[in-house]
Amino acid sequence: xxxxxxxxxxxxxxxxxxxxxxxxxxxxxxxxxxxxxxxxxxxxxxxxxxxxxxxxxxxxxxxxxxxxxxxxxxxxxxxxxxxxxxxxxxxxxxxxxxxxxxxxxxxxxxxxxxxxxxxxxxxxxxxxxxxxxxxxxxxxxxxxxxxxxxxxxxxxxxxxxxxxxxxxxxxxxxxxxxxxxxxxxxxxxxxxxxxxxxxxxxxxxxxxxxxxxxxxxxxxxxxxxxxxxxxxxxxxxxxxxxxxxxxxxxxxxxxxxxxxxxxxxxxxxxxxxxxxxxxxxxxxxxxxxxxxxxxxxxxxxxxxxxxxxxxxxxxxxxxxxxxxxxxxxxxxxxxxxxxxxxxxxxxxxxxxxxxxxxxxxxxxxxxxxxxxxxxxxxxxxxxxxxxxxxxxxxxxxxxxxxxxxxxxxxxxxxxxxxxxxxxxxxxxxxxxxxxxxxxxxxxxxxxxxxxxxxxxxxxxxxxx
Length: 464
What we know:
By secondary structure, the protein is mostly helical. The chain has helices at 6-9, 28-57, 59-66, 70-98, 101-119, 125-139, 142-153, 156-190, 204-213, 216-224, 248-254, 256-288, 292-323, 329-339, 341-344, 353-371, 374-381, 387-413, 421-443, 445-458. Helices cover 75% and strands 0% of the residues. α12 (256-288) packs across α20 (445-458) and α13 packs parallel to α16. The protein is globular and about 65 Å long. The model is unreliable at 1-25 and 231-242 (pLDDT under 50).
């Protein structure tokens, strides 16, 4: 059972005019604007994911044209993306709680678009590393802003549906981005005559980076003109005797067990899922002698299939749990997380790309099913006044996972001789991470339930 200080457990006072739910009889136009807002947030996230997936797909091209080592590729795809994301995620969440979330998100779109364009003109590791840090700067506030805005746009009765749609769309973006990126690289490699004469001799990865940077102004305008929710969620409730700006540390101290186990489980799952997405485009060509662009299409298809299966499983699990006595979402999530390590055990023994894609799809489906429920779990865990800051922890753990997984696999693969060395390295990193994720989410259930009871007793209107 968790306990807190007087500051951490004192009731929040709602700002004047604050309503946590939509009034009855709200106009159809307001509902339409909420769904439009979700669509803009989803499309913006898909744009960011396409950029991120392209960084993975061009790894072999960077090694061929610039002579980068596995460790350098790991630093570009992991450490470069994580440095600023870890440092800036909480400040971005703090700003999102106080100032325009729409404004911050639009600025982020502009930054990562310019950074992507910058990468296309670099010839050194230092220049590309700076570009990936710039991409991370733009994307640092993406997750906390988006997930904090969903409860602002939707009441609780529609929030889980909106969460699931957004989460599924984000994962479809990973698969679609991988498939489209692979198709683009394949087309650039096989159809050089179609390109203008001015691009003759230009590396295909450079052309691809320019192409995916071009939609940046369009997404900037979509976010900048997105209608704001009229809930008043941007107003910040305060604690008696103190500004909510200083309330995070007392809250974190009071509920550290719930926070560390929930976010620890998500970090471990992120390490496992990231290891495959980043390194399969390099591991499979080495192990089976296939073209990297072909891997992009095949792996993208596997990720898309995993998403299709995984996003439907939580709903089925919740319905079955309700029939079994009303299992809470965190228990349903734990069931799927425990299943995720099973297909991963077969990865060292695959003998064809199809088998590798099948392992990735099955492991991904279980991971998606468990992870899809976690945004709602964190939203329940968070006080409304601290929502962006608490959700910023999601960006931090994802950034740490993005940094840890590529570096670990890059280091281990250098110690294993043979074309399958990187494939073995993925298994060595991902299997223990999946088991750790399952253990932590099981340990999280009691402290999480205690925190949710306290939060709802302090601010019951947030769950109306």
